[in-house]
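Subject: Interface between my chains keeps coming out wrong

I've been trying for a while to get a sensible model of this assembly. When I model each chain on its own everything looks fine, but I need the whole thing in one frame so I can look at the contacts. Pasting all components below, labels as-is. Any help appreciated, I'm running out of ideas.
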Amino acid sequence: MHLFLQTLGFGLVTASIIAVASMGFTIQFGLTNVLNLSFGSIMTVGAFIGYLIEQAGVNAWWGLLFGGLGGAVLTLLLGRTVFKLYARRGTRLFEMVMVTLGLALVIEYIVDAISRAQLYSVSFPQGASVNIGPIILTVSQIIVIGIGIAIFLGLEGLLRHTRLGKALRAMALDPSLARSCGIPTGRIVNATWLLSGFLCGAAGVVYVINALSVTFSTGLDFLPTVLAAAILGGVGSPRGAALASLAMGLVTAFVAAAGGSAYSTVAAFGILVVVLLSKPSGLSTVAARRVELTL
Amino acid sequence: MGSAFSYYFATLVVYFGVDLLSAWSLNLQYGYAGVINFAFIVFQAAGAYIAAATVMGPDTAPGAFQTYIFGANLPFPLPLVLATLAGAVLSAVIGPFALRRLRRDYQAAVMLIVSLILLQVVSADIHLFNGANGLSGVPRPLFSSLGLSLNAWQWLFAVFVLAICVVVYFLVEWLCRSSWGRSLRAMRDQEDAAAALGIKGTLLRIEVFIIGGAIAGLSGGLLVEFISAWSPGAWGYPETFVVFTALLVGGVGNNRGAIIGTLIVPILVLELPTFLPAFGYPGLVDAFQWILIGLLWMIFLYVRPRGILPEPRYIAPDRDGGTATGGPLGTLKRLVTHGRGDLRPEIEPQAQPGRGPVGVQVARRVALDHGGDAGTGR
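Reply #2:
Try treating it as a single job with all components included. I did that and got this:
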């Protein structure tokens, strides 16, 4: 029982990291319909900003803020320039996936060139061990869980109770109808780039706070997990992404605890496989016919 | 022209042949059927591992220091056949699951995930193919029995690889021009319309996935017999990009374009910098190579999404003495094609003086195509 609860604690930590990233991904994908594979590379950029801030001796909270802001600005820039350019050129939905993958490669190896392909250790203070009942976690792990929960609640509040959130949901459902209702779609798309980019960059920093090291491939290695959680949770639903992240985090932790640490990530993907095999309605081609890029 | 140069050049020829097979395999899948196989390299790896394990002998033999499955001592051409089969079998396992009724962008994402899962499993589990260290010391086929010098053997093998390339080229060209290939293109361009003609999209995608997987497995088998080692480091997901970039640069849906793309991307971009003086820290040149590949990829998607040599228009003789693109596919295309290959539901303005209204022309050609052509046969 003790081991079970302890594993649950670790699972929550992993789940929080996945959740922050996959909620950002799912908002972006749900609204713009760009399956953005460069998301992981932007996460790496956020992680490196967090690392640099930590090196400068500034409080880790600033790292989180600036990592997030870096991700937001970069995502907005790419969204306004690269993605828009290709969309105007007539690039279709699935060719856009290829564009984002090329972009992912370029960003990743620019970071590689600048970072000299080294692995950098980060020494965020882990804080004392805290006993919550039988679960022992470090302060930083509790903070990671807290960040995950806070971002989830904040996002839910934003989407349900603010004008921006309502406009965002309306647009994700039907862009042209939203436009005829007077929603400034261009500005909402920009807001989406900023919001999802912020979550992406912040997820990079949160990842580093927990993993304590960063290298140029950090984000892209993490991307499949994020993708899996976003697809599993149903595209465009932060709530679904959070739930899926929880499931994947817990499965990862429990498989690792059962002695299969090599297979822990694989097991998490196993959930996705099961879901894909059981024919989710939202993923069918029939639903895809109506989907267009919204940029 | 020292022996070092001869050695290097033979290696380049073999790499070229292997990359060419990869490009054709991917062209069949992506160029003709629109399947974005981001897990391509996995099928090459499957072929390589099988070809390696089946010549290295059982891993329980005295002196064996590596652990692997399928250990055997098979004579020369058999491991290559098994490698081809391995690629096909793995495709037959993954295909039906990944190519189901999923959106194409999801399919791409699922493929990428599959690629990473398998890489993780093979790296982590030492019992499969010696884990992260991989297999080394794979015997060169016929090297000892022929009694040639290493250099002569390398050239012989290079010629062998090129000969296989020629055979595979004619095979894929034949496949692409057959009624099966026409169905592929019809499905790729207009799945609904193709389905209305009785073309089963999912089944076709799985078929092309398996054929492509077989070619990929063969290419992996050839590569491992030449370089005599194979490890997870050789099949990271960026390797798939290289083949994709070659295809995008050379020509999507054009097997001759794939040759040009293979010359430019894996050979020029990845091999030529070996001749450049080293600068910066070790690995900087690699980073620049990958950036260059990413940029090439993006620029070609923007400027020439169909590559240097785009897909040929398939022209079949018309009974009127004119020309018309053949088969129901051609009719389909004429009905829906507008401008530079963008598919929009508009009728191409074809009415010319003296040839009757558009509708009559189209109707006549529909009749012609169905009477004069065997159709897609599906």
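Reply #3:
Confirming on my end. The first helix of chain A runs from residue 2 to 32.
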